[in-house]
Structures are given as structure tokens and as C-alpha cells.
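Researcher: Please generate the 3D structure of the following complex. Treat every line as part of one assembly.
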Amino acid sequence: EAQVTQNPRYLITVTGKKLTVTCSQNMNHEYMSWYRQDPGLGLRQIYYSMNVEVTDKGDVPEGYKVSRKEKRNFPLILESPSPNQTSLYFCASAGTDRTDTQYFGPGTRLTVL
Amino acid sequence: GDSVTQMEGPVTLSEEAFLTINCTYTATGYPSLFWYVQYPGEGLQLLLKATKADDKGSNKGFEATYRKETTSFHLEKGSVQVSDSAVYFCALTPYNFNKFYFGSGTKLNVKP
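Model: Done. Output below.
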């Protein structure tokens, strides 16, 4: 089954404790992306990757890091989480054709205390 | 910069009513336009898309037409069902396909 998986689905942590949210896709997609969803703001893009070893900033990259060492994986790293990073996070993947559908993961609910 | 503006919700309708959710955009060149739907507790899934001016995207009774003259991509459905209750997002990707921009989402509640 074609899918995007994220782990963990729920995470409660404390300020400053480094964490990683994993994302994996099995569709051989070149394009992968991270979004955060906040009430009233919709989805905002954090980082995206056009292919292995190619990453770029979205609209809200501050406080986040990503890496793309393999095509299927695109982890999101919060080196020193802060309460304003409490949010619902989605990973997505797509082919590189501009009309391609983005496939979204189920989301990770992160709370930073 | 590029952006998407959609009508605020929530929108509450009775079953079989006509639905319109407005979406307008700002972009250079010719972006591709999308409507995504999010059911409670789930990720987003593509509802329909249009890639050039005057294209009409359609799926599951929903339609939207890419209007470049009014920079709009309004979502319509002739007769909504309770199962259509969800949050709907309008989105665009620019002609050179690097970023995606989403609207703030419109929550639809359909009552029996």
C-alpha cells in the first residue's frame, strides 16, 4: 500500500530536549516536505526536499532542521524545542511533476511544555 | 509573495444544500491549484486539482474552475452529504514547483 508514515504520532516533551520526528514514504517520490498546522493559519511549509541531499527552507524554518540522506526518509529535527513549536506536524511526498498529488502522513501531535 | 486566501468558517449546511467555498490566490506566472480535504483525525488528501487557466477539476461531486482573470478557484458541490463534513484547504504551487502554499482552511459541517 502506498503510504507516508510518521513516528511518533503523539509526543509530549519539555523545552530544550532534542527530538526527531521520522517520516518515510514507499512511493519512490523525489519531493518530500514538512508542514505545521495551527488553528487559523492552515498549513505552513517548514522545509522541503527536491531529492536526496537537496533541501530548502519553506516559510517557517526557524528552529527546525531536516536531512535527506535516503530517498524514502525525511526526518524533522528540533534541536531545542520551545513551547511555540507546539503544533500538529505533517510530512508529505510527491513526484517532481508540478501537477502531482501530495500524499500526506497521518500527522504528529507535538506538545512542548 | 505567493499566497492563498479562503473564506473563514465554519460553514454549516443542511444535507442536500448547495456548497460554495471561496478561494482566491496571489501568484506570479501560472500556478497549479488544488483543493485538499481533511477528515477528523486524519492527514490531508487531494480532492481535485487544475493546472492551467479555465481547467475544471472535479471529483466526488465537487468542482472548481481555475479562473485566472479573477485569480479564483472556488469549490462547489450541488448537494452536500453528512459525510462531506470536514476541513477543506485551497492550495497552490508556483509554476517553478518548489513550494506549496495553503489557505487557512474552511470547516464544513453538514447536518442531517
